[in-house]
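To the wet lab folks,

You asked to see what we're planning to order before we commit. Fair enough. Below is the target structure as C-alpha cells, and below that is the sequence we designed to fit it. If anything looks off to you, flag it before the synthesis order goes out.
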C-alpha cells in the first residue's frame, strides 16, 4: 500500500514539475528576447548622418562604405538572423540640419541607435537630446574628446583616436626633428579645429609662444583660404600644421605650391584621403606631407597578404563599385560598420538601447582594416575605442608609415 502511494506521489510531483517547466519555458524564451524601438525578430534599424552635399560632401563616401558593409552582412544572413536596416541621411554638414534629421530618425523612423554620424559640431548639436532620450549615439565620426565622457554623456561614444592626442603627436615630432621650427597654424574655426589646436599647443608647451609665428582661422562656409596661405608664406614659417577638412586641405596644398611655399607640412588625419584631398591638390604637390593613421590602407605594404584587405576589396567591388577602395574615408566607413556589427552580435537577442550601450562599452576585438598592432578596447569607464596611431608620409604614390605606434 505504501509503495503504491509513493509511486503515485512521485508521478504527481513529476507531472507538477513538467507543468511548471512548460509554463516557464515561454516566459524564459520571451525574457531572452527583449526589444526597444528599432528592433524586431527580423530587423535592426539604425540611423546615420553624413554630408552627402555641402562643403564637406567628400565625407559622404563614408556612409556609402558603411552601407556596403551592411549589405554584405545582410547577404550572409544578417546579425543573429536579423537584417540591418541602415538609414543614412544627408545633413549637408550643417548642425541645424543634423538636429532636424536626428529627431526625424529617432522619433519618426524609430531607430534603435544612431551610429557613425559625422562631425564634431554636428554631434554636439544633438548630444544632449540623445542622452535625454536615452538613445545610443555611437561611434561618432570625430575625434573630439567630449565624445568619450561616460559620466556626463553615458549614451554617447566616439570611435577614432582623439584630435587632442593626434595634435600632440605632430607637436612632439616637430620638437624632435626641428626644435627651432617657425610654425604656421591654419585652423577650422569650430570645435573640431579647437580640439586639435589645444592638443598641439599643449604639447609645444612654453615653446609655443616663440615657435608659432602665424595663426589663421577660416569658416567652413568660406570659399577659399588663399589669403591665409599668402600670409603664412610672408611670416617666414618653415613648418605648417594644417587643421582643416578635405576641401580646404586640398586648397592649402595647391596654393602652397602655386606661391612657392615649401614648409614641412602636417595634415590632420581627417584630410589624409588620397582621392578627396591629394588627387585634387595634385600628387606632385603633396609629396612629403605628414599625417597619421590608425587604419590599414588597401595599398599599404603592411597589408600585403592580409585576408581582411582582400575581403575589403571584394566587398567594395561588389557592393560599392563606384567607390575608390584606396580612399581612407571608405576604410573608415567599413571598419566602423564592422565595429557596429560586432556590438550587435554581442547584444544577442537583448536588443534594448540599454544593452546596446552596455555592449558598446565592453568591446575587445580588432575590426578589419585597422593598422597592425592597433585594436579596439572599451569599458564602462573608457569610451575611447581606438587610442593608438602611427605617423605616415606621402611619397608621391602612396603613404608610407614610419616610426613607432604610439598611444594606448
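Sequence we intend to order:
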Amino acid at each position: 500500500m505504501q509503495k503504491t502511494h509513493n509511486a503515485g506521489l512521485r508521478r504527481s510531483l513529476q507531472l507538477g514539475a513538467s507543468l511548471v517547466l512548460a509554463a516557464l519555458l515561454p516566459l524564459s524564451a520571451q525574457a531572452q528576447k527583449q526589444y526597444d524601438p528599432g528592433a524586431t525578430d527580423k530587423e535592426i534599424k539604425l540611423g546615420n548622418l553624413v554630408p552627402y552635399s555641402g562643403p564637406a560632401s567628400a565625407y559622404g563616401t563614408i556612409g556609402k562604405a558603411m552601407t556596403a558593409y551592411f549589405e554584405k552582412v545582410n547577404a550572409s544572413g544578417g546579425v543573429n538572423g536579423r537584417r540591418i536596416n541602415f538609414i543614412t541621411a544627408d545633413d549637408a554638414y550643417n548642425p541645424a540640419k543634423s538636429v532636424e534629421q536626428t529627431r526625424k530618425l529617432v522619433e519618426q523612423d524609430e531607430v534603435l541607435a544612431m551610429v557613425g554620424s559625422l562631425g564634431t559640431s554636428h554631434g554636439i548639436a544633438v548630444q544632449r537630446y540623445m542622452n535625454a532620450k536615452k538613445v545610443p549615439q555611437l561611434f561618432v565620426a570625430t575625434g573630439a574628446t567630449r565624445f568619450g565622457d561616460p559620466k556626463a554623456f553615458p549614451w554617447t561614444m566616439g570611435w577614432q583616436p582623439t584630435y587632442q592626442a593626434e595634435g600632440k603627436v605632430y607637436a612632439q615630432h616637430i620638437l624632435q626633428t626641428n626644435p627651432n621650427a617657425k610654425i604656421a597654424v591654419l585652423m577650422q574655426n569650430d570645435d573640431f579645429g579647437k580640439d586639435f589646436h589645444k592638443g598641439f599647443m599643449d604639447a609645444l608647451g612654453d615653446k609655443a609662444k616663440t615657435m608659432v609665428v602665424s595663426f589663421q582661422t577660416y569658416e567652413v562656409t568660406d570659399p577659399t583660404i588663399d589669403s591665409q596661405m599668402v600670409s603664412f608664406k610672408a611670416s617666414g614659417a618653415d613648418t605648417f600644421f594644417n587643421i582643416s577638412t578635405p576641401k580646404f586641405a586640398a586648397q592649402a596644398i595647391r596654393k602652397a605650391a602655386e606661391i612657392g611655399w615649401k614648409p614641412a607640412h602636417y595634415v590632420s588625419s581627417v584630410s589624409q584621403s588620397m582621392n578627396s584631398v591629394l588627387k585634387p591638390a595634385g600628387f606632385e604637390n603633396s609629396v612629403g606631407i605628414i599625417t597619421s593613421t590608425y587604419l590599414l590602407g588597401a595599398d599599404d605594404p603592411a597589408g600585403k597578404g592580409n585576408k581582411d584587405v582582400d575581403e575589403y576589396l571584394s566587398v567594395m567591388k561588389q557592393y560599392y563599385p563606384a567607390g575608390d577602395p584606396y580612399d581612407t574615408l571608405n576604410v573608415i566607413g567599413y571598419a566602423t560598420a564592422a565595429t557596429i556589427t560586432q556590438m550587435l552580435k554581442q547584444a544577442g537577442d537583448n536588443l534594448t538601447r540599454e544593452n546596446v550601450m552596455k555592449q558598446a562599452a565592453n568591446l575587445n576585438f580588432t575590426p578589419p582594416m585597422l593598422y597592425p598592432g592597433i585594436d579596439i578596447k572599451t569599458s564602462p569607464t573608457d569610451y575611447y575605442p581606438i587610442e593608438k596611431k602611427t605617423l605616415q608620409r606621402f611619397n608621391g604614390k602612396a603613404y608610407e608609415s614610419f616610426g613607432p605606434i604610439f598611444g594606448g
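Structural context that might help your review: Residues 43-161+301-389 form a domain with the Rossmann fold fold (CATH 3.40.50.2300). Residues 1-5, 17-23, 25-30 have pLDDT under 50 and may be disordered.

Thanks,
Computational group
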